[in-house]
Amino acid sequence: xxxxxxxxxxxxxxxxxxxxxxxxxxxxxxxxxxxxxxxxxxxxxxxxxxxxxxxxxxxxxxxxxxxxxxxxxxxxxxxxxxxxxxxxxxxxxxxxxxxxxxxxxxxxxxxxxxxxxxxxxxxxxxxxxxxxxxxxxxxxxxxxxxxxxxxxxxxxxxxxxxxxxxxxxxxxxxxxxxxxxxxxxxxxxxxxxxxxxxxxxxxxxxxxxxxxxxxxxxxxxxxxx
Length: 225
Known about the structure:
about 220 residues; 8 helices
């Protein structure tokens, strides 16, 4: 149980590190292919763009977890300690509501690509669509289905999402999957932060003056060097 909790607590770091490593390796391989072998990896740019999008979206929840989002606290610091806590709780509520709306919107956008129904309701989910246009057959532009040592690890997706028809390119539902995943993580991290404020373990959701202190500390270390 401890190992599962530890992995979930650090899931953003794991995914970000993995994506950065893959982006670096793919870009390096493409440079070698272009300038050494006068060739190129045609799908490298598209995959790199997708991975960069994953980094940005996963980075939002990671920044919440490590309290790295910047903010202005000039007015907040003028309030009493209970006043700052009240403002922080209100901010947490607004952020949780905003993240929930983002989660609904991201699910609604992604769901049809996975042959799943989007939610009903303009702002809040009131159920699921009774009829919708399945888009599981939509493919990416350039990224081919992977073949690893003669094996096709994504072959099963053809029968599940494409009525048995062959995918020539990777289905869009895979790169777009980051939308509901990242927004669910964002919502979860905001809820965690709100609970920390409620339990008096956290005073603010933003970095603000702590970031300035960190910059000053780094500058002092550079002077010593």
